[in-house]
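Form 7-S
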Amino acid sequence: MDVKEKEEIKREFQLERMILFSDAVFAIIITIMVLEIKLPEGLRHASEARVTEAFLDLIPKLGGYAISFGIVAVFWANHLEMFSYLKDYTKKLIALNMGFLFFISLFPFGVSLLTGTLSALNPYGFFVYFSIVLMALFMQSAIRRYLVINAPALCFKPAEIEQNLEWKAQRANLISVPILLVFAIVGLTAGFEPYIFLYAFSLWGFSVAFMRRKYRNQGQKPNMPLIARLFRSRKALIKKEVESSE
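Output:
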């Protein structure tokens, strides 16, 4: 085995470590979130009414966990897809990934704050939670941008990366997310009515969905089905890359 082969094996091993570390963070975050859902102590000899009340008190936490589980699952699936195209990494990519994982790690805090304080008179829990979601989305979009720009050096089949990552539909997040955060801060400071936030966030959500649908309708779809792209073997990608270069 020559020096070049040793370096390639080392790089592949280090890249796998970064991916496994990211997966572990996602798994731990989901576990921590579910640990927040528990009945208070001392219910063994409590009355039926007290037990029923305790279960009803858990409904907001169960709802918050279910929603957050879905959001984290979407982030993980997108992360898995992006990193399935990697053949190399850089220190900047590691830094961007750590920034993304930082906001993912704030989900348990955001869920507990949201379910514990949310009311019409106290929207700050929702603001913090929504800010965490937006910043995670922003950082994931920043990773997409970095991969698209540096595709020749970092990715398999670089000519297809922009299309596969739906970059044309995703790049608006780098502008819309900061605007939304500034709007939310100004609105909270000025005391906007809650329905104004609802309209603004709904408009943003529909706009993002429209852009993605328009992008897909233009025929710029990944060449492989979603499940195949998410769970295909990295070794198969490496083999295809080697065969295409011969």
